[in-house]
Fold:
Amino acid sequence: MLLILRKTYEDLSQEAARLVGDRLRRKPNLVLGLATGSTPLGLYTALIDKCRNEGLDFSKVTTFNLDEYIGLPRSHQQSYHYFMRESLFKHINLDSRHTHVPDGMARDIEAQCEWYEQRIVDVGGIDLQILGIGANGHLAFNEPGSSLGSRTRIKTLSERTVRDNARFFTSMEQVPRYAITMGIGTIMEARELLILASGESKAEAVRAAVEGPITAACPASICQMHRRAYFIIDEAARSKLTQVPVEEVTGREYAAPGYQSLRLGEPSEIFGERRAHERT
Structure:
């Protein structure tokens, strides 16, 4: 696992876009796992810019989103179908036939989950999975207590997640209580993970995920076990890490047992020919 510190949310987003752009240039038919929420918006804006101004080509890319609310039609402004279309898909040269978001209106939700899992297998698996991290450490809608080996399934949302999502709806009664989500086992099968965290509200979750024990109480902690997981965080999100010294923000390299971090403001080794340090 590699920890990459950046000063601001904008810096974090640009670093993430460089990683995605590098992987796409190396493999034009990249299978890309996508996340929703406010954290990846800066990344998506940067990718749109790269597509328009640098010729980054998405025409052969296949995408899979992590999750979708159950009971919201695709046209609903808070559905993740709508979010992805407005935030990314309609702005880049991505073939809509190659995009996948779980169908929260499916008549048979369990069959939809099984189909989603099989579709990922059919295209050869996910190459790079983008992830945010919830304030309670959840990945996608895998809430604390979720099985670390879980597959795509129906999930009941925790009260904290419902409260966090309430700002997007006009009333608490409108906030969905159930979702389809990729399981943690599904996520961990991606060849690379890119986890983004920004802001002080995510600091405790980042600390638990990076420095804490691997436990279902913090689903994101399972990323410690992935050979090629990259945490890109800003200064606010790293504020509760106990193993990262103050010197890190001045640009000095620091490596602690269990993970390694890179110098602020320097190109990270995950881009270009050099291989990233990997947790063993």
